[in-house]
Automatic annotation (TrEMBL):
The protein's name: MFS transporter
Superkingdom: Bacteria
Entry-linked PROSITE patterns: MFS, SUGAR_TRANSPORT_1
Residue spans crossing the bilayer: 40-57, 63-85, 97-115, 121-141, 162-185, 197-216, 252-270, 290-311, 318-341, 347-369, 381-404, 410-431
UniProt entry keywords in alphabetical sequence: Cell membrane, Membrane, Symport, Transmembrane, Transmembrane helix, Transport
Span of domain Major facilitator superfamily (MFS) profile: 25-436
Main location: membrane
Organism the protein comes from: Azohydromonas lata
Its membrane topology: Multi-pass membrane protein
PANTHER family named in the record: ALPHA-KETOGLUTARATE PERMEASE
Length: 450
């Protein structure tokens, strides 16, 4: 990769070129996250089917717990993936890390479509499923953080929140497409066809999606902030990014981990686990639960862009504090309504949850990108975000199912949301957020000084 000693002090490229590169960066960031979260949506929404294919059991809850356990275990590789992809992104470039990660991720998802079930391979079928999910988790570890850092470093400062909100919107779009496709499979196929071969169809789409994303990313230049860092002497130190994070930016790392907890729990409980919750705990048909999730996702995407734009005016920290307080106040009452709600009310509750989650998610990506200096931005974001998702996100469906079984109350997931919001709120009080500065200035003046 050729170095381009372009920096803010040496002059900026033409406005037309900047706009073209910003649009391409937005497209490249969107596609990668879309593929990643489409995969997670397909797995989560087909959990009851996958449970019977790989974990046949007379106790449906046990089979479902096994399926969610594989989902959770695959997340434990993500902090390591965050370190690896963060190192590549901070040392060799954001573009190079993103181009490679999407290739591995889409290939492993594609392989998922060809895995034999328990009838053919017995226990080894579950082992193969776990291995594929681990590879997916490793490759996905660099996607969200890398895409957010990439587009944040391209976006103009006064619209950074709005542009970076494209990253969580792309994850929701992947979930939305997965929800629509799974709902279609339930409508078009018989239960026998769905359990035999229909569940494999969504994973076949990963190959073309991944190739398109890689092509877009390979056509991009790296970000202006990284090119300026390359041209300077700031990246010539010996310390690896993760070592520098743990030695010089521990405060930022702990703040990021705490704030990301609400996203980790909220995202997987409300957008991935909720259809399963409605069908298994509330007795709603699978097709109607998927339709409710689809409507909620549509509104969630719209809310995200609004929240991103508002955060450019009022600040990221203010939006995140408000989101945490509202989750703490509203989660239990909203879950309580689900038990006796008609279908229209149930959809309205999910829309309300989507609005609350959008208030957090539409702000979080930009907040985390601004929290770290350029030379460790990818690593700091990736490690903290993936660690939070490992501990609290990937385990959320399993924990919710287990809590309901242990407590006997369907309100258990709501209290889990309250706990996550409380942790995020405490972390936010320790965050120092100067406003109106460039990403480089935020890194040097705020975090280095801290």
């Amino acid at each position: 990769m050729s170095k381009q000693p372009t920096s803010a002090m040496a002059g900026r490229p033409a406005a037309g070129h900047e706009q073209r590169m910003l649009r391409r960066a937005a497209a490249g960031s969107f596609v990668g996250n879309f593929v990643e979260w489409f995969d997670y949506a397909a797995y989560g929404y087909l959990a009851t089917v996958i449970a019977t294919v790989f974990f046949p059991s007379e106790d449906k809850t046990t089979a479902l717990l096994s399926t969610f356990a594989v989902f959770a275990i695959s997340f434990f590789i993500r902090p390591l993936g965050g370190i690896v992809w963060g190192h590549i992104g901070d040392r060799l470039g954001r573009r190079q890390a993103l181009s490679l990660s999407i290739l591995i991720m889409s290939a492993s998802t594609f392989v998922m479509a060809f895995l034999p079930g328990h009838e053919r391979w017995g226990l080894w079928a579950a082992v193969a499923l776990l291995l594929v999910r681990v590879v997916q988790g490793f490759s996905a570890a660099g996607e969200y953080a890398g895409a957010a850092a990439f587009i944040a470093e391209y976006a103009p400062a006064k619209k950074r929140g709005f542009y970076t909100s494209l990253v969580p919107a792309s994850t929701a779009a992947g979930l939305l497409f997965g929800s629509l496709l799974v709902a279609g499979l339930h409508a078009w196929l018989t239960p026998a066809q769905l359990h035999d071969w229909g569940w494999r169809l969504p994973f076949l789409l990963a190959a073309p999606f991944g190739l398109i994303g890689r092509w877009i990313r390979n056509s991009l230049e790296d970000t202006p902030a990284f090119r300026a860092l390359e041209a300077s002497t700031l990246n010539a130190h010996e310390a690896t990014p993760i070592r520098e994070l743990l030695s010089r930016h521990r405060r930022a790392l702990l703040v990021a981990l705490g704030v990301a907890c609400l996203n980790a729990v909220g995202f997987y409980v409300l957008l991935s686990y909720m259809p399963t919750y409605l069908s298994t705990e509330q007795g709603l048909s699978e097709s109607r639960s998927f339709m409710a999730a689809t409507i909620a996702l549509l509104t969630y995407i719209g809310f995200i862009f609004v929240v991103g734009a508002v955060s450019d005016r009022v600040g990221r920290k203010a939006m995140l504090v408000l989101a945490s307080l509202l989750f703490m106040a509203a989660s239990v009452p909203l879950f309580g309504v689900l038990g006796a709600a008609d279908y229209a009310t149930l959809v309205l509750v999910q829309i309300a949850f989507g609005a609350l989650l959008a208030m957090n998610d539409g702000t979080l990506a930009c907040f985390l990108a601004e929290l770290f200096p350029t030379r460790v931005r990818y690593s700091g974001f990736a490690f903290s975000f993936n660690l939070a998702n490992t501990l609290f996100g990937g385990t959320a469906p399993f924990v919710c199912t287990w809590l309901i079984r242990q407590t006997g109350t369907p309100l258990a997931p709501a209290w889990y949301l309250v706990a996550a919001a409380s942790v995020a709120l405490v972390a936010l009080f320790f965050a120092r957020r100067p406003a109106g500065l460039s990403l480089d200035a935020v890194g040097s003046k705020a975090m280095d000084a801290a």
